[in-house]
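**User:**
Make up any protein.

**Assistant:**
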Amino acid sequence: MATFTFRSSRYAGERTVAQALLSQLEIEGVNAVFGIPGGNIAAFQQELRDHRSIRFIITSHEGGAAFMADGYARATGKLGVCLVTSGPGITNALTGIASAHLDEVPLLAISGQVATDRFGLSAIQESTSARGIETTGLTGHATAFSMGVVDPGSFPRIMTHALRAALSHPKAAVHLSVPSNIARQPVPFGAAQHVTGKISVDAPSVASKDIRAAFKILMQAERPLILIGSGAGQALSDMREEFTQFVHRHCIPVVSSLRGKGLYSERDLFGLGVIGTAANPRAEAYLRDGVDVLLVIGSRLGEWTSRSFHPHFKTIKTVIQVDINSGSIGQFLPVALPIIGDAGSFISGLCELGKEASPDVPSSRQTWLDERPAKLTATPATDRETLHPQQVMAELDASLQDDMDFYVDMGNCTGWATHCLHIAPPARIFYPSGLSSMGWTCGAVVGGKVGRPDRIAIALVGDGSFLMNGTEMLTAARHKVGTITIVLNDNFLGMVNHGERAQVSRYSIDDAFYGLGGPDIAQFSKSLGAKAYVATRPGDITRFLSEAIACANRDGQPQVIVAHIDHRVAPPYGDRFKSVAGDA
């Protein structure tokens, strides 16, 4: 009879369910699992204690563990994994799981469960329908796949199904609930499903006729525009030079969604930056001046990208949309040429056709670009005694390096980073824009640095978000993960403070209603094992960032730069604030 086997694994022969799962994670190249210990996941914890290739990173909170798994997956391109116990363990992790799922990040959440012979007995942290809190059903609404394992014989099949769902196209979060007794039982010989190597799911290629049709429409356009989203990330990483040559040869400007920021160099003449909320002024101007053909690759055109569904987009005559997920096509704008398939095959075919065709570029398009060169630094405030957020961004922009990864939280910092930073590959920037979760960065930057220790991992976060999940600095300190966190400290929940001010003018921007009470962020960070710096004047960010990078690399100690910024300076969110104010 067939045997449940694992190739390229330390395990051979009959293994327990816990051993089998970790063996498959080895094969997938996973070298870290993030989580909080608990009695119902003891079998996994004991296997991870002395595992030769997978570290168990014990976090401060299960939500932080899920955010770390998310950051790990984004930084490495591998599966991110979090391990939590039953009951509150998995419910605490749910926001992080949902956030990864909406951003199409491959994440496996493993949760414990009480032993099967205790189902319905009100066992401690029982999470079944008999107790009214059925966590597989709960997570099923926030993942692509969620199932409980009820016997070791079916485990290989269920695990394979889960991993295929996570690593499919689009990628997704998945969840497995494993009862404590099942985790310790051996997977029997003769199990139906065989795992014989790394799970891989090929994406469907775009038909050549669709590529030719799109190319023809682009070449006939007077003012074309290419919009790239995160769905084009891997393709552009593999074919960056070819795509850049295509863009230059045919003089077609490129903009990006929020999560596509930096996939095409924002320091290039043809890279106009982010379109939509907190957009780059060049991108806004090109759209405002008229676009007849818009080619969208790997973006849903959601609210972030469409600038709250701005009317300027409705003036575009022809839309071509390429996406692996048919459900993403035509959500906002009518699409003349819908193309379902892999962005890589589409971009490759487009570039090949571009080499053969002679450029026929209207002089007005080239003139428009020449007259509006990219500004490589943000415009700092003129007040030299006060640290404005624009000044922070200007100093960060001037300090950008190829080996930097930025993890940007939700809030005012999203707007400032999007509007002011000019990202050029191989530097990278990540946002949790699907669910827009505050506090994501505090975990994600740690997971990203664990996965890619060769990169400089920098978090940009507001003080309100940092107070939510900043305790993960302790995780970084305990495990010697040298992250760098820049906290925009204005002592307010700044985004809602400015948003309300834009909607209801009778409230003062200094009203304490959204105030944070003046916590000492630097001392808080130090108490968790981080080295802290306090920036209050122009020039401080440049000086402290250089020192923080050196210390993080040398000592493996988390670094926190607290930037005391003027809370009165409004972020570049005007249309977003207005659209919320106008919601009926």
